[in-house]
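Weekly sync, protein design subgroup
Attendees: M.S., D.O., the rotation student, P.L. (late)

Item 1: inverse folding check
M.S. brought a backbone from last month's batch and wanted to see whether the design step gives back something sensible before we order anything. D.O. pointed out we never logged the input encoding, so this time it goes straight into the notes. Structure tokens as presented (342 positions):
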């Protein structure tokens, strides 16, 4: 029997059920690591579909399942998550990218992909997840201005660890391994072409994921990871690799924005007037900080952008929920009227 404590499970399952950790999702089939070894399972319809059903499992989730002779087992329950990285869109809805991770590795390359605004966006969502963010700057062997970009990232990320690495030369890998202890889980988040697959292969000590070539015109790569998957490293740590994401909605991320821009929000309380618009008003703490160089104009503008987006998506979510409730009420009324007529 495999000890699932190695995968982070510390509970005692109910009689008749087995625990498992989701390592990959293949449409309707879920790949689990279980005390019996790897198993494929499907969701029990009555438990997951319909009003009040269980949350759909994501990679990294712990679930309870039943075995089935000669076929896929049945997942009956998704266990509570300690952390979750959520990608939200006001039109596509909520998508859990990874669950129960200890660290979010925010990956960006030190070539032409380097973008402070994007790092700040990822940081806000990583802090909202409940996990510890780590900014991993890849391809240090291809950049001449590594030190300057590390300083820029440190200015944006404040108290977050910044780790520049190169999988070609091995630079920075020892420091990265400090986070990858047995039983710990990290999720790789970043755009395509930043080196997630190359880093995973280096950590695994073998090629487990194809690494895409870099385009000469923009320095970016093509998508090589096609689905989210959990890997166990030789060290005993676990890594969730994800496909590249070009956009991340800021739904329900106001707390994460506030944590990421704590230095900005401290300044907001220092203006002379409580209704200061931070434009030309006298005694504006924001304008004074920008003028003195303590706060960059770009950081102030990005804070406003992400704050507006977070507020908008919260309002959008409320509107969608109200619309769903109205439609449900109308459908129930129509059903009752048909019964009375017939």
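Designed sequence read out in the meeting:
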């Amino acid at each position: 029997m495999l000890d699932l404590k190695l995968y982070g499970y510390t509970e005692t399952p109910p009689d008749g059920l087995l625990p498992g950790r989701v390592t990959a999702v293949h449409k309707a089939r879920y790949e689990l690591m279980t005390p019996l070894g790897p198993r494929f399972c499907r969701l029990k319809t009555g438990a997951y579909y319909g009003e009040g059903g269980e949350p759909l499992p994501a990679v990294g989730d712990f679930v309870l399942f039943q075995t089935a002779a000669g076929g896929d087992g049945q997942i009956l329950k998704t266990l509570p998550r300690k952390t979750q990285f959520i990608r939200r869109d006001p039109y596509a809805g909520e998508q859990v990218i990874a669950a129960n991770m200890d660290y979010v590795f925010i990956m960006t390359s030190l070539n032409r992909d380097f973008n402070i605004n994007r790092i700040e966006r990822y940081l806000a969502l990583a802090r909202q997840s409940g996990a510890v963010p780590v900014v991993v700057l890849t391809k240090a062997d291809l950049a001449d201005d590594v030190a300057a970009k590390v300083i820029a990232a440190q200015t944006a990320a404040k108290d977050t660890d910044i780790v520049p690495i190169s999988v070609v030369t091995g630079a920075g890998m020892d420091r990265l391994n400090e986070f990858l202890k047995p039983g710990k889980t990290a999720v790789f988040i970043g755009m395509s072409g930043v080196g997630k697959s190359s880093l995973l292969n280096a950590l695994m000590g073998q090629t487990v994921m194809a690494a895409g070539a870099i385009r000469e015109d923009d320095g970016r790569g093509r998508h090589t990871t096609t689905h989210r998957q959990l890997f166990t490293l030789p060290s005993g740590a676990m890594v969730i690799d994800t496909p590249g994401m070009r956009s991340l909605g800021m739904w329900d991320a106001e707390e994460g924005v506030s944590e990421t821009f704590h230095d900005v929000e401290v300044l907001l309380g220092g203006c002379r007037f409580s209704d200061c618009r931070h434009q030309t008003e006298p005694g504006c703490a924001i304008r004074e900080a920008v003028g003195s160089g303590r706060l960059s104009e770009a950081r102030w503008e990005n804070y406003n952008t992400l704050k507006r987006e977070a507020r908008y998506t919260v309002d959008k979510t409320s509107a969608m929920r109200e619309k769903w409730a109205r439609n449900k009420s109308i459908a129930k009324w129509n059903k009752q009227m048909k019964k009375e007529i017939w």
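Discussion: Confidence is low (pLDDT under 50) at residues 212-225. The CA atoms of residues 191 and 247 lie 9 Å apart.
Action: P.L. to compare against the previous round before Friday.
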